[in-house]
Amino acid sequence: MEKTENLLVQQLKDKKTSQEAFRELVSQYKERLYWQIRNIVKDHDDAHDVLQNTFIKVFRNIDQFKGDSKLFSWMYRIATNESITFLNKKSKRLQISSEELQDSIINNLESDVYFEGSEIQLKLQKAIASLPQKQQQVFNMKYFEELKYREIADILETSEGALKASYHIAVKKIEEFLKTN
């Protein structure tokens, strides 16, 4: 039986129970966080690296979690920020722009053995990659993760109204991209 979130947070903050609680935390959330990260970084191996960094950051900073949001929303925000940081560092390391990196990542999806998508799914990924980063995040969270606007608002620390507008604009841009490509 899954522990309540409050109990899990208490156990994570207690030095005596933190190791076992952390194992449970990883068990409960690794798959959902992996797919959130994967939707941003696209590459399987990179997603695993970012997931590890996310859990390390969660473990080190659990004392800073105040309970103002759900634990998952807090971790999701960390995962999103870690993913963006990872991509920014990668583009700097490769000495290319963020847009060039996105193009490269999408082109590599075709040869990625972990990508099981069809041609239309590949086109959808290309369309998503053409969006500004914030719209990509909102679209991925709403479309793929099926999160509610309230949850996305907690994660991205913005208003539901702004998210609805951003999602609507993203959908229109994706539709246009798919029609013209």
Automatic annotation (TrEMBL):
Any one GO biological process: DNA-templated transcription initiation
Tree of life domain: Bacteria
Record Gene3D superfamilies: 1.10.1740.10, Winged helix-like DNA-binding domain superfamily/Winged helix DNA-binding domain
Domain RNA polymerase sigma factor 70 region 4 type: 122-174
Keywords (A to Z) from UniProt: Sigma factor, Transcription, Transcription regulation
InterPro entries in alphabetical order: RNA_pol_sigma-70-like, RNA_pol_sigma-70_dom, RNA_pol_sigma70_r2, RNA_pol_sigma70_r4_t2, RNA_pol_sigma_r2, RNA_pol_sigma_r3/r4-like, WH-like_DNA-bd_sf
Pfam families: Sigma70_r2, Sigma70_r4_2
Domain RNA polymerase sigma-70 region: 25-92
GO MF term list: DNA binding; sigma factor activity
Record-linked NCBIfam families: sigma70-ECF
Matches recorded under PANTHER family: RNA POLYMERASE ECF-TYPE SIGMA FACTO (PTHR43133), RNA POLYMERASE SIGMA FACTOR (PTHR43133:SF51)
Family designation: Belongs to the sigma-70 factor family. ECF subfamily.
Name of this protein: RNA polymerase sigma-70 factor, ECF subfamily
Species of the source: Zunongwangia mangrovi
